[in-house]
Amino acid sequence: MRRLVLLWATAAAVRQPPLPKSPSAAAVREAYLYAFATYARDAWGSDWLRPVARQSVDAAAAGPLGQTIAAAADGLWLMGFDGVVRQCGAWAADEFSAGDAHVATSTRDATKILGGLLAIYVLSDDARFLGAAKKLGDRLLPAYGASPTGPPYAHIFDLREGVVSKPTVNVQNSESLTAGLVELKALAKATSKKRFAEASDRQLQALFDMKGWTFQGSLAPARASIEAGAFEDSNTGRCSAGEGGAELYAALVARGRQSNDELARKASRLAARAAVASLTFVVSDENGTVAADMLQGERGPPVFHQRACALPGFLARTNWGYMPQAVHDPDSVKTIARDLVTTCVQRALQTKTGLAPSLDQATGRVGDLRPETASSLFFMRRATQDPYYASLGYDLFRKLNASSRIQGGAFATIDDVEIGNKRDEQPPHVFETLKYLYLLLLENETQSTYLDDYVYAAGGHLLPVYDGSEVLDKANDDLRATVVVVKKIGHAVVPDDELHIADSIERFAATATSAGHVTFDENALNESYTMVAGQRPSGRPLSGTAMIAGFQEGIIPPNQPGNATVWGVSGIEGPARFVSRVAQALVKQGLPVSRSFVEDTHASLCKLRPCGHYGTAPRYDLPTNLTVSADPLGSLTVEPWMEPADAIEQFARAAAAKGQDIKRESCVEMLSWFCKRRRCARQTLREDRKAVVLVSTGEKDLEATATCEFWSPPEWCAELLKDRLIKEGVPVDSALAAGMEVRRHFCETSTCGQRLHTRLSLDIWDHDNGTVGAAACGPLSDPADCVEKMFRGSYRVGFKANETTAEASMTRMMRWFCKRRECIRPVAPAVSITHKGDVLEVKPWDEPRGKLREFAQRFSDKREPLSQEELKQLSFKVCSARPGWCVTLPKTVGVEVTGVGEATCRPWEEPADVLDTLHAHALRAGLEVTDLQLKKSLELMCAQRNCDRKKVKSMARIFFMHPGKTAGRAIQDATTKTDKVFVLGHDDRCDGLSKPCYVVLRDPRERLVSALAFKQQGGEWRGERLLGNTCHGWLMGKNLSTILADVDGLDQHCEYFQASPDKKTHCVFRPLEWWVDGHEDDINFLCFPELTTSFSALIAPFCNDTTCALPKRNPSNHSELYGGRPSSHGAALDAFARRWYSKDLELYERHCGTVKGPRQVYGNASAQEATVEKGPFGEPIFAWEP
List the disulfide bonds (predicted). Predict the structure, then answer.
């Protein structure tokens, strides 16, 4: 860990401002230092700090660019912290990775880093910063050189390989058009290299030439296309000071002051015109003065936008829009600017936290510590010398310091300015905010201005002004490389020491292909090679196309290369990417893919063409499968052909579908872990999104907010909003329209069409057993999970597929699902591990955690428990062999119970069981354990690992048992609010001696009918419609009389419906006497007809004055079982019950009176015809008369 040493020195080349004497500026200076010191301690070299977790996070998963150091270094110099600046210089020389890492970045972020490096270089005269700046500047040039018109592409796919990102849409934010405009010009001055000035000048000229400037060529619409060289149509688009418009104009101001050439003068004139034209944005009402958007040529509603708070500072920097020989009233512009910045400050001070919301809407209440208001206050005070702005600035700082600063000195973004909850992030731009506030208060204190010969670039970085005497070098010998400019793609750089030209050209081509560029074809590859080969020795020729046997035509989609039975791998695509693409195509069609297939195919290709020049793993060579821990949820394995960002989002989606909460921060850390070990085409996760729509309720329009987390499919988010609105009473048509509008909005920036918002169901048939059932795949679920679950369920209920044909069956099911939903992974392979002479077998459909628990329990039963390390290794071996999310055994956890001892729960044990055992031991030893101790102990354990049971049995005051699983689970859910009632499992028994025990009684004959109907409809898995077990197959089509006439057949096919003494613990329909077990006099019995009333009254004192909802009756449909003449089945049913369940009948008669069930009253065979009524589920209700 780097130690931060603070030294004092004033040896810089530029004269530093004096140290402050006023408490206000000194307080800002101290806050700046402590915020940076916290970053240096916990996140040195990384982009951002997570101050609460004391961890780092990078903007791109592949590695950092040091955003915070670049943002803060010039401010440290301005405040006199020279020792810290020198440590930043050591970082720039030794750790800055822009030239080496395969990092993806936005051009705006990267040029701000460039500006920070240049600013600290010119201020401190430390050449180490210039070296880093030059390295970064050369890596950024492809964004400018590849541009067909001049302004840069908004994103760079790979800094090292010089490839820009392929735009997902045809337009980008207009503010990105000026990214690097000032910084590249300053870099040219610092390095004397003309290539940087040429890029800046070309960019500026292209900005002037852009089509679509509005308001007589003065204002830029918010979106633009650099390929078309035009802004968005002003008749349909939007002009906005709040979406970067003010930032674009501020860059023109800085560029206009930076040099004394015609382009600079033209930039100044355009900035002045923009200042005057921007006054049309301004609108005032009772809430203050704001800069509204211009929508389709008309001024929009007066919505506050924090980024528009940069507009007053822009007006001040243009001398209030002054232009020679133009009608000008500077005083009125000053007044408007004062009103604007005053409103910006008031919007902040009016909130609970004293921070301004990012927007005036429910979706924009984040206090993100942005610098726009602080910069406007600085420029307004500097232009007017009015201390009023310094007073406002200090008010802002005090609120910022009070609400956003956390222990240790760092600042944290506020998630909601009206609530005050903090996000765990300290964004780099907080140093820009503090820097402007410091200079504002310092200049107000000293009544002086400092560094007047510098311009303020993006990020508040101070860059020098040209004096016109600079001579720039046109030669590029310092690059020590040949550069091929490929329009719309990037720069192919061939180092002078590269032995084979083809190596560099093919690496560039492979990166371009990975980025999605299709225009760099084999012709372009050959042309690039020829251009370089004409200037220097070429080495080996290009690889050419390698031919390899494929599967069948159609495996790869027709519009992609390789759609044939013989696959041709062209020179523009790296072998590793081709193999990955083939594997992805197979998975998306539901076909099996193994690691051996991928590795063998890749090895075959590398025998046919060179592979070594693509680099060793993990970047371009075929990655290995990687497994990362995702405690407490298990682990995630990413296969070589999988994109880590996609796999992580699928993991989060699957976890959400199972009710697990997973934080975005955890997923970002996982992505960073993967991308530092292997190639990642996508280095960021999707953003969390919000959308606000107007919903018509018939009486008035209401605003509804739809939230879409990074893992959420857009259609799913729209469905949730629609369903929520309907539940809130919004008309269906209006709710549907709102859902469609939200879907349209989200689908503009996210992939749609995955059908993750619908439920899919596939009917399964077997040649021998007829109907097997249906494999259901709910919303958000991955098809491989659904297929594995279906097979797991079929084995559980007795229907076991032939294992030799299981793979083919699962493949057919996967192919069906993958035509209807995007598939991310194939079905898991089988795993077999031998450990200490025992074999752990995990089939494709098995749940790893269950198999690991059984395996560990076997050793524990032999008194040879496996160690934590052994279990960890076993879990890793199992999960690393299975793609995707793997739920494994949790870690050993323990708690200290005061006055009793330590409770340790091993991975295969349940924490609640361990605490029950501890309580029993304590009682025998005469030690007291309170309910509060037990409850807190369980909470502590369950915070560290997953718990299947969230109640400690020992805390209960009442035990409760119900013979039916459906109702039993419902009662368990109903009593979750109280720890005083515990629902016993089917294998538990109570004697009623230590604590009251209540057992529910139902007429045994009704229980038997329900059990038979339950099995006839698929048993436990009927929710999945998994019907193909032997009992179901035998019961299908039979009525009650037919079934009970063949009790041997029933016994043979339905797992012991006969409750003989040797079958009591295994029969499907377990007799009640088993639970009573000789303690009838000590047990309380509840008859089913009175259950709701009696049990509700019984547990009411434990439910905190709330109603404990009780279950409805078992929803089995009995009508199919009874058939056409239900009255004829009474004798058979009565005879069967009295033969096998006579003691249950007697027990029911003793405690519930006559043998009348809640829905049937049974008589003898000579009873008259019954009157038939329908029950709540459509089943017949029989009232027998003797």
Answer: 309-344
